[in-house]
Amino acid sequence: MTSADRSGAPWVLNPAFRIQGGDLVNEAEDTRLTLTPPLRELWELGERRDGAPAVRLTEEADKALRRIRLIVPPDASAAAAGGLARTAGTPLSLPAGTRAAAAVWGLIGAPVDLGGPPGPRPKDAVPVIRQALAGRFRLLAQPGTWSWTLRARPAEGLPGLVDHGDLAVHPQTDTGAAAHERLRALVGTVLAQGHRPLVIGGDHSIGYPVISAVAGRHPALRVVHFDAHADRRPAGNAVTADCGNFVSWVLSEHPHVAWLTIGVRGVDTNLDQATNGRVSYLTADEARAPEAAGTIARFCAGAPVHLTVDIDVLDPAYAPDVVYPAGGGLDPATLTALVRGVAAAGRLVASDLVEACPSPSGRHLTAAHLADLVETVQLAEAGQVVGRGSPVNNFAGEDA
Questions:
Q1: In terms of C-beta density within 10 A (0-12 exposed, 13-18 middle, 19 or more buried), how is residue 277 classed?
Q2: 354 - beta bridge partners?
Q3: What are φ and ψ of residue 390, in 5° steps?
Q4: pLDDT in tens, 3-41
Q5: What keywords are assigned to this protein (predicted)?
């Protein structure tokens, strides 16, 4: 039975839950809830298939039950039966500032990797990125932290972040299509809670289910895509996208999405021609030019924007731990400035950041740069709230 919360948002009981004694248990996500009288009543009503009246929840109850995924959006139900996410080894949170106006970010780890050359893999970088983010978030959350970029204390204006865990992936049994279906459903549950999905991967194949879920919520979506590669190989007869053709899959499924790819270089021998005219490009050389900022501002121009970043957009000198390195890439300062421009010009509604691999040396520089971009977005949005302040300039010859 489909029911709704007080706002009318539809939900169904998560089929992964079962009653075991006095508990509701979701073994796929390692979740156990005491079956209190209100939960038992909700469960019994939700289980009825005889046209019982819709169950309507208070806003507080709706948020709590969606957070533990006891209720899920109807279109997430089939995938939820196998479990959507598990608590991460390094759970993260970042409180929203007292004056923050933007919706919080909903973090998802996506250890999805559909294969490639041997060596360190992007799916194994999720815990490394989480560790890098933990240190940055500890600093950002402190009330006394000062940002020289903002010339302000960011804590008052941070949009904040809630951790939804890591996608449940069963490497021995899951196909790529199954993992993508589950990730699309998980993103849907995050959107249903009013959070903006922030997905850390994983390879860039995740862009297909993530952006598709977001585009379903935002028909006028614009995608800003930082990457060394166009990722527009033809879809062919495959059952789901891979990291080299996810753009083609998204554009085929969502014909109204506008797309800007930034940082491409080298040659492409198998470019999908079907989407010509729907994708704009800034090569790596063009992205370094002063005109790039204006191009990004015009493209975003107050629209809902999804930011997707393949960290191999950076030159291998800065990001060596990637699967497909390409020389002539951007430097971190240029990438940071361009991402700030996206946050300033558009209305960020979702993001995914992918393709960092763990470093055999243990230094994890590439994952650190990816974490830096998450911090960049947090600071950019905080700056829109708190403005710029002191300390004042105190150069020689000027009054303090």
A1: exposed
A2: 310
A3: -90, 175
A4: 655 556 789 999 999 999 999 999 999 999 999 998 998
A5: Hydrolase, Metal-binding
